[in-house]
Amino acid sequence: MRLHETWSHNSPRLVILFVIIQAQRALAQQIVSSTAAWSSQIVAFWGAIIIASQVGKVGTGGTSVFSSVRASLRARSIANALSRGNWFLHSGWSNGSMRMDIAIVHWQSASDLTSLARRIAMQIETFGDKWQVLVLGQEVKKSDFEKKENESVIHWIKSPRSERFCGAKVKSTGENLFRLREHDLVDALDMLKQTPPVPAKAIVEELLRREDTRASRPTYLSEQHNEMKANSGQLSWGYIFTNIDHQQSPFLALKRWTGPNGIDRGARMVCATRMYLLVHLLIACAVGLMAAATGRGLAVWLMTVRPTISTMGGKDVNGNDVLRSLLCMDEGSFQYETRQGSRFQAGDVVVQPMGWWQPAVAFAIPSLETAIILAGWFYGALNAKRLEPSGVVGHGMLWLSIVVGLSLCVRALFTLRNHDKGRLVGIWKESDFVRFTVGTESLELQLSELQRLTSDSPINLIATILADEGTEADAAIRVVESLLRLPVTTTLLEHLVATEIMKFKYEGDKIITKAGKPISPKSESPWIQSYCCIALVMVSSCVSAVYAYYPLPRWSKLVTEVVIAVSAVFFNSVDLVGSFMHEKETSICFMVAALVTSSVWYVGLESAG
Q1: Which positions, given as ranges, span the membrane (predicted)?
Q2: 24 pLDDT higher than 50
Q3: Distances in Å between the alpha carbon of 229 and those of 216, 244, 494?
Q4: What local confidence, expressed as pLDDT, does residue 19 receive?
């Protein structure tokens, strides 16, 4: 009875006490949720710096899809040019500082040509952002093939800017190896200019007789000149293959082979593509779940997959995209040493045709990755509840992120403005060579136009040899390869393209006009789009601050995050595939600003796991 009376007497007080305790718990839970949500901003802040350091590489699935589309379009251009008997040149404003890479294509049918063009296009897209690549070749009948190694293949050779930069040496003496010398080229031109001119078949036979086919080895690092050592960070076929021995990766391996008596040595690259695809998709699923648990930071999650793969063995895979690198280098062979009489030379690379499924995988996997992350983020964004800033952490991280984002955007604007005020160098005069700026990424060189513009030059000689139907195709290609290895040949081709085809006019070493029109960095770079991206991120940063203190509609957050993500993907794509890229400082400032701004949203989820 006394207990009942005590409860009845004190029940109002107990109820009030219970309500107060629950309210305090709820308030504490709200503060904890708020603080936890904004504490994750610290992780996003430093994560943005790490992610943005991947400048020059594919950062998102959207950039990878865009790059795959570019590679497909370039493959079609290469196949069309070669099928018409023309050449294809890939270059830019500062490509090929030490060499010109040359892809010699041997094909038997139209389907083979298409498959080979796919391989070249993907290799250029993956490795050749700083390369200058010349693609040419000839259709060869099956009766012309004598050995298995001469089937439909791509034979990669290189033409150094100077004879001092030769990448192959005679194995017995250590002297630079050029199979033909400049005096051989001069004699062949004299034969072509005789009246009547010597037939192309006779010229080919004479040059074949003069070829120096002694056993070769690569130039060792200790034998390279300072200019080559200074540019050793730029990718080359030799670096791509030999780096596997120094930087182990679970996705790459070399299967070495030797010829009879150990005279020939080489390696074939074996890529664990299926294992990589499994790792890639699992990481994408994990990132998608994290995006669903936060409901914010779309740009951060889109750029998280590849840095994560980098820590799991992807950083030692060369190229700007791990997946495309594995697809385009699988089964590629590198020549370490060659025997006497071999048609190959040390440093050459031979690759096979590429099937249709490899470009399809390069397009489908990043598309699926992007769809998974978007789905996870969209689910979280729809279920996220707006929270208000609270405490030092909440208000402090909010305004710290906004100030950092706006400051970096302003810094990016200044660096971008300075970049637009620069100048385009047209003639690069080095101590041992002169290099001409081509200034275009993709260009089909008409063989008939080359012959018309160069009546007495090595380019006309090469075009005449390739166009002659009476010359055996394999012999013609072999002589053309030896001629293209000479630095003078590719230098003359560059000069021809710059002055006669692109029609650049110079003032000293500076390009001032292109086909009679004034030219400047502003006329060539996508500066308007870049300014728009920076402005959109600045506006988005302000919107996120308003959203934290004022209940804007939910769709405003969704739209703003999508705008930031699209801006980041576009900026990354320009840095990767643009012929006139941003400066590294500009890219880092913008990417960090975009990623920090993307995660400045005061939201939380219930039962997120």
Answers
A1: 275-302, 360-380, 392-414, 527-550, 562-581, 588-605
A2: no
A3: 21, 19, 24
A4: 34
d(CA 404, CA 596): 8
Element (H, E) at 302: helix 298-302
Angle at 341 between CA 336 and CA 344, to 5 degrees: 40
> Domain residues of the chain, as ranges?
44-59+275-326+353-422+524-602, 70-214+433-520
Q: Measure Cα distances from 147 to 151, 316, 329, 349, 482 in Å.
A: 8, 35, 23, 17, 20
CB under 8 Å to 521, separation ≥6 — which residues? 419, 420, 421, 422, 423, 424, 527, 580
Calculate helix-pair angle for 487-496, 182-193, nearest 10 degrees. Answer: 60
> What pTM was computed for the model?
0.88
Q: What is the pLDDT of residue 82?
A: 94
Bigger pLDDT: 317 or 606?
A: 317
Reading the block at residue 303, the tokens are: 């750029």
Hey, what amino acid is at 566?
A: V
Q: Hunting for tokens 């290609």 — which residue is that?
A: 477
Residue 112 φ then ψ, to 5°: -65, -40
Phi, psi for 391 (deg, rounded to 5): 75, 180
DSSP classification of residue 104: E
Max Cα-Cα span within the chain: 134
Give the C-alpha separation, 434 to 228, whole Å: 15
Task: Give residue for tokens 């895979």.
Answer: 317
- Tell the residue number behind the tokens 């669903």, with chain if given: 292
Is the predicted pLDDT of residue 438 greater than 50, yes or no?
yes
Do residues 336 and 217 make contact, with C-beta atoms less than 8 angstroms apart?
A: yes
The first and second tokens of residue 395, run together, are 């208000």
Looking at residue 53, its pLDDT comes to: 56
DSSP state of 471: S
- CB 232: neighbour CB atoms within 10 A? 12
Q: Which residue has the tokens 């400082």?
A: 585
Residue 305 is encoded by which pair of tokens?
């997959």
Q: Over 80: is that where the pLDDT of 316 sits?
A: yes
